[in-house]
Protein 1
Amino acid sequence: MFKYDTFRKVIVFLMHDAILAHVQNYISLSKEEREAFLAVLTLLEVPKKQRIVEPGSYIQNEYFVVKGCLKGYYLDDNGDKHIIQFAIENWWIGDFDAFYNHVPSKLHVEAIEDATLLAISYDDLERLFLTIPKFERYFRILVTGAFISLRGRILSTLQKSTKERYLEFCRTYPNIEQRVANYDIANYLGVSAESLSRIRRQMVISP
Amino acid sequence: MFKYDTFRKVIVFLMHDAILAHVQNYISLSKEEREAFLAVLTLLEVPKKQRIVEPGSYIQNEYFVVKGCLKGYYLDDNGDKHIIQFAIENWWIGDFDAFYNHVPSKLHVEAIEDATLLAISYDDLERLFLTIPKFERYFRILVTGAFISLRGRILSTLQKSTKERYLEFCRTYPNIEQRVANYDIANYLGVSAESLSRIRRQMVISP
């Protein structure tokens, strides 16, 4: 029992370390502020293939990925899947629209690998903005980056070859190509799995 | 001369009133904070068809629309235009990627009507964030809304009929349908001008 507790404490410490390192890339926090922030985070272990967001549900949390890989996707009326986001270490994932606007989610968010997440609830986040306003800056910078990246992805589909878009994808999600199925990457890029396989083979031969 | 000065002061007062009303929907400002904010805004009168952002250029400003209507678009290698944003009263427009990341712009931003804008420079905005941090909140809320709306637009193209997407467009940009050419709205929605005209005619008959 003692050993398990100690082990658990080490794990929690490492996870807290990961998110604090990320936050402190953008804002500096005092010891009290770090503690107040960590106090509102909830640890979540999500096994591979489990979903943390389902369409039609009200979303209480946004999730910071400490370890693992997840995908956010939309199923259309024909049952076709459209992957709109991956999340790896140091990304936030959830359904912003459902989270901020209190409307039912339209998305699925599913773990591709066993994942360790830190969840923050809407109420806790709003309280955090009031008590430690510099978190406004952290999230403003992150969401501005997400907006730029989403708009960039739209421009890329108009402008760039599949190979260029695949390289861009590898830069956005470093090393993810080993962790995600070929057909999921193809789906995200909006190309057939065959085209993507061909491009990946060519790149091995002439990178 | 006296009369012109008075007239000009009234105009500036009304414009400042418009942007303050918008900002104060999200954050409250003291008299000193309002004055500090207004002091970094530059008035800009842009005639119809003039561009305020050109691809390849470095972007110093973001623009708040006091009056008028603008479009942001991308020209692909074939010279085809892709409209990615309109802006009417109380919207901000520019090229976020170029503005925040100091890279050359990829977009054109052009006035569809004579427009009155208030510009803020990158340096002034960063200073504003330092001196009056609540502006972090204002821009965080705006950019979160822009992100949700952009992602919603992507889901809509997967999910909704052209008629539903046109109605959504009219809700996003109230009364804009009288101000923008049919082919520009069709371009934004990614449909042919003929389809859109047919839908608009049907809606007049059976709204």
Protein 2
Amino acid sequence: MTSESKTVGQYTEKELIERIASIIGKPKRRDILIGIGDDTAVVKGSGDSKLLYTSDMLVEEIHFDRSLISPRTLGRRAMAVNLSDLAAMGAEPQYALVSLALQSSYPMAELEELYAGMVEMGNRFKVTIIGGNLSSTGSQMVIDLFLVGCTSGRIFTRSGAKVGDDIYVTGTLGGAHAGWLALEAYGNRAEKTYAELVKMHQEPIPRIKVSRLLADTDIVTSMTDISDGLSTDLTHICSASHVGANILWSQLPIHDLVHDFENMTGADTRLVVLDGGEDYELLFTARPGSAKALAEIARRARVPITAIGRIVPRNSGIRLVEGEKSSPIEAKGWSHFGAGNR
Amino acid sequence: MTSESKTVGQYTEKELIERIASIIGKPKRRDILIGIGDDTAVVKGSGDSKLLYTSDMLVEEIHFDRSLISPRTLGRRAMAVNLSDLAAMGAEPQYALVSLALQSSYPMAELEELYAGMVEMGNRFKVTIIGGNLSSTGSQMVIDLFLVGCTSGRIFTRSGAKVGDDIYVTGTLGGAHAGWLALEAYGNRAEKTYAELVKMHQEPIPRIKVSRLLADTDIVTSMTDISDGLSTDLTHICSASHVGANILWSQLPIHDLVHDFENMTGADTRLVVLDGGEDYELLFTARPGSAKALAEIARRARVPITAIGRIVPRNSGIRLVEGEKSSPIEAKGWSHFGAGNR
């Protein structure tokens, strides 16, 4: 079948991005350091400085359910997930533009709360909303944020991992997805029983501080944030770096409540942790022998940093090691279109 | 009634923007030269340079009808209307990010054409697409573009018009709205009978060249682009500059085909020209005595520049002068929400 008769739902997100990149062609401007395909775009500023641009869209019913999240929390979340992309590159956030499509029946009080939430999360990381636009829509609400960041130091990309590098993750894993499953299953009642998990889903904390500390060192060889799930985001790094990876199941910093959640609901912790996504933690590779320096950075940023595996040659593939056994890890995390999970 | 029980549809766009600006508060960062409320945001770059950021969202069924516009033309249009915002500020366009929400049933071939159209219009003005994101949606398609521009020279704002300044407009007026009315009334058949008008609506040409030439002079005192309609966009300038305006009906550069369109369809040329919008021409004020210099710029840019009136004191209001008569001009152009037309 040619593209003539196919729909976008028949392509993986990676295939769609590759197709789009080929239409755009190789950048002609020399000032474009990183174009389509990483967490943010990067262009040359004056001197050593670099400017970073990213956008992330939240669509009602796809990314959020207005009956399950308050407008203020939604505002905080929209800002946080965009900030996470800047954290993944090691940049300092600066400005945001907010594009909103709203039904004209949308309550004014909710609009005010939504902005208050974005401002709140923005202020926490010194980001100012400087523009945007409002549009009406006949259907689902859309929130699209554009963020601008800068750095005069190192930037992290997905493509620098080398065989022998250690693989690290910040914070804990699985909490956000368990929270989402709880909301799906129990609706607003989940906020009582699974309050902490729900909060981890709805209000991720972008790892700006630890990222900026890491950018001051030469430890990190590649980085991304865990938005689509460990399996998918690790695949992004391995694919961009042309390497494989071994992940040690026993080392994964699974949130305690995720185990409790499994006990209570029967949810599969393995799927939650590997494929769940939306933890917005940083996943990165580091030169061998960086453990001590990373422990110090973890202490200063007050965020755990855990070694979870090692980069191996590409032909060894991406594998999950559990005791004596090992099994392939496939990118089964979040994908926007139907074909994403194959 | 307090905002507690009101919907966004009960506010004008201006009121919504003012409310949002008050939630965001005064920018704390000194590097923000222009925040919310003009055609683009402007921040300080290094040295004399300034960086400009703007975004504009097109929502299916609100801004376009997929049965009446080809995906390639839609791509060109999406890029052009964003470029027009940079033209209105006098900036040089540099980069674009594209956020798309699509149903998974959207044909891949149309996605390719949509990008090809954006790339085509971008190349014409040396803009490269460097990023963005794709999302699925259960309903209407959304295209949100974020543009980055720069300048080391003058920037134009809406707020510098002075009493006695002349008011100018580039190109012609009314063609785009007449084209839209033709499409509304006759669907695809309009493309035959009213081909030129339809093209003016679907494929506006951003006035980057004339804007950059004007930025090299000290002639211009305020500027915006005509996106919402002459009446609304002139009101934006007058309101930001605390002045009034007299517009001479006999001087307006109404496109010839608009008169023909009136003869054939009975459409009210006055409404089309004053309130229609989407011409994406530049509307600006200039120091008295600039006519000769402007004629030279018009010649170099190959775009007509026409004097259409004069800035007067605020208490004289904004008026349309027709021979001996004059009548108030009210902002009756495009507004996204219901209350816009009051």
